[in-house]
Specification:
Strand content: 25-35%
Helix content: 10-25%
Structural class: alpha/beta
Number of strands: 13
CATH superfamily: Class I glutamine amidotransferase (GATase) domain
Largest sheet: 9 strands, mixed
Number of helices: 5
Length: 203
């Protein structure tokens, strides 16, 4: 069984509906003491990094998520949920993350853009992926739907399994053992996004 973490930061229904389209029932779980009862955990999220971490803290979810990761069971962070996997973020000051992936989250550096572009990065864009079970059955290059103003910077290059270009190349998918994250929204990315979720189900 897959649990979708409910910490009051995101449209959980759309993620749950995407899994339902694949014939997979999920549970929207707000009780951290029950996380250990599930086979897989999905950490979605929309909004500000600091607010999200505060919500997780208030609900006693931080240690429960870390313990789940330590158990070796698969975790998938989506959009803000992926960013929370990192050690820190510079969004609205310095904020500590879950620390499951080494690295930090930074704002798009528009001074480095190869052409004038708007932030947030919003809409369809290509993700170039490495070979990984999360992308089984997909081409190395495929379109997914993005909405974000910040992006991850990995300390370890081997943790990067997907990159996207928006002004410059940035990390859009990560994996460190059983901890995985994708910056785009698979639940909004039609067949490519559903394929990623299907692959997560089958891990």
């Amino acid at each position: 069984m897959i649990a979708i973490v409910d910490y009051n930061m995101g449209n959980l229904a759309s993620v749950q509906n995407a899994f339902a389209k694949l014939g997979k029932n999920t549970v929207v779980e707000s009780d951290p003491t029950k996380f250990k009862n599930y086979d897989k955990l999905v950490l979605p999220g929309v909004g500000a990094f600091g607010d999200a971490m505060e919500h997780l803290k208030e609900r006693d979810m931080i240690e429960a998520i870390k313990e789940f990761a330590a158990s070796g069971k698969p975790i998938l962070g989506i959009c803000l949920g992926m960013q929370l996997l990192f050690q820190s973020s510079e969004e609205f000051g310095s904020n500590e993350g879950l620390g499951l992936i080494k690295g930090r989250v930074v704002a798009f550096d528009t001074a480095k853009f190869s052409e004038p572009l708007k932030v947030p990065h919003m809409g369809w864009n290509r993700m170039f992926t490495k070979e990984h079970p999360l992308f089984a059955g997909l081409d190395e290059e495929h379109y997914l739907y993005f909405v974000h103003s910040f992006h991850a910077v990995c300390d370890n290059q081997q943790d990067i399994i997907g990159t996207t270009n928006y002004g410059y190349d940035f990390t859009s998918a990560v994996a460190c053992a059983n901890v995985m994250g994708i910056q785009p929204h698979p639940e909004k990315s039609h067949k490519n996004g559903l394929k990623i979720l299907e692959n997560f189900i089958n891990l």
